[in-house]
Amino acid sequence: MLFNYASKEIIVKIVYYGPALSGKTTNLEYIHKKSNPQTRGKLISLATETDRTLFFDLLPMDLGKVRGFYIKLQLYTVPGQVKYNSTRKLVLKGVDAIVFVADSSKGLVEANIESMKNLKENLKELGIDYTTIPAILQFNKQDLSDRISKDELDSRINDRKLPCIEASAINGSGIFETLKEISKLVLDVLNKSYEIAGPKTTLGKDDTAKTNSERNIIQEETSNSSETVDLTGDEGLNNKILRLQSKIISLKSVSHDLLNELISLEQLLADLKSN
């Protein structure tokens, strides 16, 4: 968590993780669409041909304060495809809480298991303890007639006995319930850390904040990096990716223009390997 003493904000980073096309992007798009425009930042999308990474800031006024600080949520998704694993790890850097979005589509049990395994591996590499970080599971696409049951998904991927929420992100069911639950877990950690009896979360289903024009969040979209990639071959691109990772890791937070460059490089490397 980051403390901004100038704006009196505690910045909490929440990452939505899960297999490709499980509904991570749909979750964030719905939250952004339904949230109060005066308390949300610009929705940033870093797109490749087949995947996207989204993020934006959200300042829910009804989360209350901790020691006089407002709670600002930074919501991120990771790309679902394995070839973007370097990007996944960078998005996870500095994460405070995780929402694992499982795909309830029939036949995708193994994809969910593999994605959970990948999450644990990436957290371990980053020095983050999976067994203690605030996390919940969202079982998305439970509206499908041909679906994996909640009980089966729970038994296969929920070794921590985490809270589980059934959802249908495409129509908004369960999305704000998920955000409310993960926010509660984060507040519990903050309140225990500072031994303060914190406020209860009261996030609404279709609105996460009350109007407060004086606390309008403005976030300008940064232009993509214009650096030209003139390296060829797997080795050259791998070296380029490693240098870029080191550059991003040296920063306190992930710069989305650098992240965009990394995604482009990973796409290029994947294309070269497939040819």
TrEMBL record:
UniProt keywords, alphabetically: GTP-binding, Nucleotide-binding
Name of the protein: Gliding-motility protein MglA
Superkingdom, taxonomy of origin: Bacteria
PANTHER family in the cross-refs: ATP/GTP-BINDING PROTEIN-RELATED, GLIDING MOTILITY PROTEIN MGLA
Biological source species: Candidatus Schekmanbacteria bacterium GWA2_38_11
Signal peptide: none
Xref: Gene3D superfamilies: P-loop containing nucleotide triphosphate hydrolases
GO function terms (MF aspect): GTP binding; GTPase activity
Pfam families on file: Arf
